């Protein structure tokens, strides 16, 4: 073909193509010689952009045969490729036309190349927008140039003519009658003084909030108090944030830092609470960040004590309100909650004091942390059935402007999601007839369509607000936005009018997106660079003009820094948030924040400074994990190994000792004390020559605990007392980094056990009490849990039954409230080890304790656990089971090399054998226990075994009583244990 003829042919093709695509609402981005680059959905999105593109393509292919005739031997043909996805649209440098950038454009070009002449090929993402409108046939998977994985393309075929609807509107709840009835029924039971909980869980858009709204409306004629606490994705890990926001809004406090006004409002709010706790005002003021003189009384409170008081005060507040009127507490979006809020809700529900209280939570998943035994009902919202979907559409389209075909199409596209159905129906009714035969399935597209239709600066304001989060403050929005006050006010009014956002009743300057998906959709319309800029501006404002707000919410500052790709500063703010959580005894929340800090650091360039920051975070995380997961949790190992690797790279021997000490603690928890000693000895090998005090402290503490379990107790005592002498008052901050179990507490605990074992029971008790006193002076829930557990353990060893029970019981509650599994599990066993509760209850405690310890990976002190279990089984009247338990305990101790309790296992074996009438076997077992204890210099255990042997043999055995006298003389002077007292009585009766 002549060049001039070819040029004329291409010009004719371009003209026809332009007319065809523009007729259907498309825009020509570029003329590519014999090709066209066309896009739909910009500058204004329409609900049926995908269908418009396909119909234009079919019309183009159908009309090409008329172009170039009669100069062509064969009709002109073209290939069409269609893909859906985000693109960047800009203007050409000459100002004529647009330029499209992004992967979507490249993929569309590749699809076009794969199509056959005269056909339309589409990607699966585009096909998702076309279901039910065009016939299609999948093609064999192919490899497209520049695409890593093979893709499946679809060959489209012409469809029947589109149906034309006629528009209409309303808001209602359908298909949820049963669920609403269950909520009403639960409220009725609450009126009788029963506290109750209901969890509504479902995927986004299925109507959790609408069901709650309708339930609230149904209570309009019933006196009650309705409280709403909203969890926020940006505040995940911020302890009690939903209740802080609830209290501030309920009291009308805009800024808690405005001390005089905030304090006055709080006092007025508490005035009607006649029986409130004496410290209710300072506790709540402290929670809300109100700096009032009264809060100074809390200065001496430990974090865990203050946390406990805060939770109890909030619970008592709800209970007080319930005496006035029934209370419905709604906590929405619990999937974004912090661990402390979960603890508070559980505490509210588990109390057995009558209260007219209903806790209603919504979540995207059933595993939201609320104890299922406390929930009266769990309501899972399914997708709407077709009949219910039709009812919803017809309720909105009350004048029946939509055709049957349009309704079917809406139902097909919405897939039973009420939010989609409602919004898509409203959008269809807003459009002119004939322009909406296809409804998009993605909410992003729907939100874009709504925003594109807004006047003025409303769309841009919604995008900026979406960066701030689900809820946002007008003042912060104004600081980040580029609009003046009048422009911003007008934009907010337009968004309110469109029902995209709503205003808080008590705080008019506080807004929130009507639905989380609305916020997500608006956020998704921002280009990455624009997002970064807005997040950076928000972070800057929170660190400067709004610094008080930023200081109260460090995790929010960290989030904005991270999203603006300021990775190292983000990590530091997450670290700050983690430390704050740990000081509030919210250690589980702290672990979440430390992990987020480490994730943030992954984006920073590798430098020595980054390594230093990561090392600090890994150690903080490791210390926290030991508390909330248990020393033997496998989750801890990679943390300590990574910390060790970095420390060795940096030649940081101090932190190297921390990582090695963490690994030693892990192996003690796992029950492999030999391996634990290897790690501790590594620290010792270079700490001794360098006289490195911190390394020596860590090494001796770990060796003391490991050696005790091995049964090398004299050596354990030497290491423990050395650690005690090395400890300094500020070591919790400098050695344990303010997170984890204090080294001094560990040293005192190991010393206490060793002293008792060797016959110095009074010194052992004194050391345990010193450990508790030390822990009480630290801001450390984990250290206090450990110290109390050591004290319960010493009382158990000594035979102080009532004291052991009391301390163990208190510690179980303490650890359960704070989520500290290892010590909770141990103290459940120790509580069961005292013959206070009935045997059946003790066995329940043992099962629970072993379950917790097993879940934390712990295999330490197995002999102790098996001995307690055997004793309870024997007391329950199951000597055969007790016998099997003791034999298994002996085998486990031998396998793990944990010999410190071997003598006691043998003694108990003899006790059970004597109960079963086998005196000979009993004497043999108990005699073996005496020998084991004597060979290991375990004076306390030898005394106990000799007392048992005396009981079995009777008063005629003078040898046993002579040995009793000898052992009694070796005990520490003043020893007042029950065993020592019994031995004295036995010897006194012999002499008399």
Description:
There is one protein chain. The strands form 5 sheets. The chain has a 5-stranded parallel β-sheet with strand order 10-11-12-9-13, sandwiched between helices. The protein has a 4-stranded mixed β-sheet with strand order 3-6-8-7, with helices on both faces. With 992 residues, the chain is of the alpha/beta class. Strand 4 (88-91) and strand 5 (98-101) form a beta hairpin. The N and C termini lie far apart (134 Å). Helix 16 (458-468) crosses helix 18 and helix 40 (902-915) packs parallel to helix 42 (939-953).
Reconstruct the topology from this structure.
Layout: H1 3-23, E1 27-31, E2 36-39, H2 49-63, E3 80-82, E4 88-91, E5 98-101, H3 103-114, E6 120-122, H4 124-127, E7 135-138, E8 154-157, H5 177-190, E9 196-201, H6 208-218, E10 225-230, H7 241-251, H8 259-270, H9 280-288, H10 303-324, E11 327-332, H11 339-350, E12 357-363, E13 377-380, H12 386-396, H13 404-414, H14 418-430, H15 443-452, H16 458-468, E14 471-473, H17 474-480, H18 485-497, E15 501-503, E16 510-513, H19 516-524, H20 528-543, H21 547-552, H22 554-563, H23 567-583, H24 587-601, H25 608-629, H26 637-650, H27 653-670, H28 673-690, H29 693-710, H30 713-726, H31 731-734, H32 743-757, H33 761-776, H34 781-798, H35 801-818, H36 821-832, H37 839-855, H38 862-875, H39 879-896, H40 902-915, H41 919-935, H42 939-953, H43 958-970, H44 978-991
């Amino acid at each position: 073909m002549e060049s001039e003829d070819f040029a004329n042919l291409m010009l004719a093709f371009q003209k026809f193509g332009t007319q065809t695509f523009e007729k259907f609402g498309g825009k020509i981005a570029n003329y590519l010689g014999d090709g066209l680059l066309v896009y739909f959905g910009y500058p204004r999105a329409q609900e049926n952009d995908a269908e418009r593109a396909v119909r234009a393509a079919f019309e183009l292919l159908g009309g090409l045969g008329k172009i170039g005739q009669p100069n062509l031997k064969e009709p002109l043909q073209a290939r069409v490729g269609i893909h859906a996805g985000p693109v960047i649209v800009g203007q050409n440098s000459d100002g004529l036309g647009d330029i499209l950038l992004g992967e979507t454009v490249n993929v569309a070009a590749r699809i076009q190349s794969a199509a056959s002449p005269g056909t339309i090929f589409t990607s699966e993402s585009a096909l998702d927008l076309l279901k039910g409108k065009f016939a299609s046939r999948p093609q064999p998977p192919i490899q497209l140039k520049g695409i890593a994985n093979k893709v499946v393309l679809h060959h489209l075929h012409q469809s029947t003519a589109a149906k034309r609807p006629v528009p209409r509107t309303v808001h209602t709840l359908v298909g949820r009658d049963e669920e609403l009835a269950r909520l009403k029924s639960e409220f009725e039971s609450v009126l009788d003084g029963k506290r109750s909980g209901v969890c509504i869980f479902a995927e986004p858009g299925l109507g959790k909030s609408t069901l709650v709204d309708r339930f609230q409306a149904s209570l309009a004629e019933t006196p009650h108090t309705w409280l709403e606490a909203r969890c926020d994705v940006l505040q995940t890990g911020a302890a009690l944030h939903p209740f802080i926001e609830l209290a501030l809004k309920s009291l009308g406090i805009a800024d808690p830092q405005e001390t005089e006004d905030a304090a006055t409002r709080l006092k007025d709010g508490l005035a009607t609470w006649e029986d409130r706790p004496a410290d209710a005002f300072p506790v709540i003021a402290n929670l809300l960040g109100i700096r009032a003189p009264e809060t100074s009384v809390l200065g001496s409170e430990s974090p865990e004590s203050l946390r406990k008081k805060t939770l109890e005060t909030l619970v008592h507040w709800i209970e007080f309100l319930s005496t006035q009127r029934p209370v419905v507490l709604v906590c929405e979006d619990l999937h974004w909650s912090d661990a402390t809020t979960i603890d508070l809700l559980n505490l509210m529900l588990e109390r057995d004091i009558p209260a007219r209280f209903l806790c209603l939570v919504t979540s995207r998943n059933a595993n939201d942390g609320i104890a299922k035994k406390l929930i009266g009902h769990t309501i899972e919202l399914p997708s709407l059935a077709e009949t219910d979907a039709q009812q919803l559409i017809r309720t909105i389209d009350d004048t029946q402007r939509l055709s049957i075909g349009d309704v079917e199409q809406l139902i097909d596209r919405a897939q039973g999601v009420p939010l989609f159905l409602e919004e898509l129906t409203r959008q269809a009714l807003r459009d002119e007839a004939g322009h909406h035969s296809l409804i998009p399935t993605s909410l992003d597209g729907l939100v874009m369509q709504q925003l594109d239709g807004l006047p003025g600066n409303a769309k841009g304001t919604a995008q900026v607000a979406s960066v701030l989060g689900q809820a946002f403050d007008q003042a912060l929005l104004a600081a980040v936005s580029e609009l003046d006050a009048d422009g911003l006010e007008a934009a907010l009014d337009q968004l309110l009018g469109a029902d995209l956002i709503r205003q808080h009743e008590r705080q008019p300057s506080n807004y929130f997106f009507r639905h989380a998906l609305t916020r997500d959709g608006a956020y998704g319309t921002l280009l990455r660079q624009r997002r970064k800029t807005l997040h950076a501006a928000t972070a800057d404002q929170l660190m400067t003009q709004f610094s008080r707000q930023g200081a109260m919410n460090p995790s929010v500052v960290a989030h904005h820094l991270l999203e603006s790709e300021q990775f190292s500063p983000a990590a530091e703010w997450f670290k700050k948030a983690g430390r704050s959580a740990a000081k509030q005894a919210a250690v589980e929340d702290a672990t979440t924040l430390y992990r987020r800090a480490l994730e943030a650091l992954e984006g920073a360039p590798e430098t020595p400074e980054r390594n230093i920051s990561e090392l600090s975070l890994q150690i903080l995380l490791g210390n926290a994990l030991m508390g909330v997961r248990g020393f033997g949790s496998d989750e801890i190992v990679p943390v300590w190994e990574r910390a060790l690797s970095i420390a060795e790279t940096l030649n940081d021997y101090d932190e190297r000792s921390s990582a090695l000490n963490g690994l030693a603690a892990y192996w003690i928890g796992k029950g492999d004390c030999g391996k634990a000693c290897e790690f501790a000895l590594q620290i010792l090998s270079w700490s001794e020559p360098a006289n490195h005090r911190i390394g020596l402290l860590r090494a001796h503490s770990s060796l003391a605990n490991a050696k005790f379990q091995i049964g090398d107790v004299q050596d354990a005592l030497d290491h423990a007392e050395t650690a005690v002498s090395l400890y300094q008052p500020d070591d919790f901050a400098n050695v344990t980094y303010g997170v984890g179990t204090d080294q001094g507490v560990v040293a005192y605990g190991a010393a206490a056990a060793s002293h008792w074992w060797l016959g110095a029971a009074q010194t052992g008790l004194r050391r345990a009490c010193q450990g508790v006193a030390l822990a009480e002076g630290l801001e450390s829930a984990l250290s206090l849990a450990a110290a109390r557990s050591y004290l319960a353990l010493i009382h158990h060893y000594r035979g102080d039954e009532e004291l052991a029970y009391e301390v163990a019981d208190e510690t179980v509650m303490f650890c359960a409230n704070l989520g500290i599994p290892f010590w909770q599990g141990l103290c459940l066993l120790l509580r069961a080890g005292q013959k206070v509760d009935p045997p059946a209850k003790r066995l329940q405690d043992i099962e629970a304790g072993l379950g917790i310890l097993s879940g934390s990976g712990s295999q330490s002190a197995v002999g102790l656990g098996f001995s307690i279990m055997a004793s309870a089984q024997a007391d329950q009247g199951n000597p055969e089971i007790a016998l099997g338990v003791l034999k298994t305990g002996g085998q486990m101790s031998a396998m793990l090399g944990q010999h410190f309790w071997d003598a006691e296992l043998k003694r108990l074996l003899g006790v059970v054998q004597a109960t079963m009438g086998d005196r000979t076997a009993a004497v043999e077992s108990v005699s073996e226990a005496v020998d084991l204890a004597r060979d290991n210099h375990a004076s306390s255990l030898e005394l106990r075994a000799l007392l048992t042997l005396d009981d079995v043999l009777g008063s005629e055995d003078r040898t046993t009583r002579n040995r009793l006298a000898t052992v009694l003389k070796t005990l520490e002077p003043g020893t007042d244990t029950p065993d020592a007292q019994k031995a004295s009585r036995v010897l006194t009766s012999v002499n008399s």
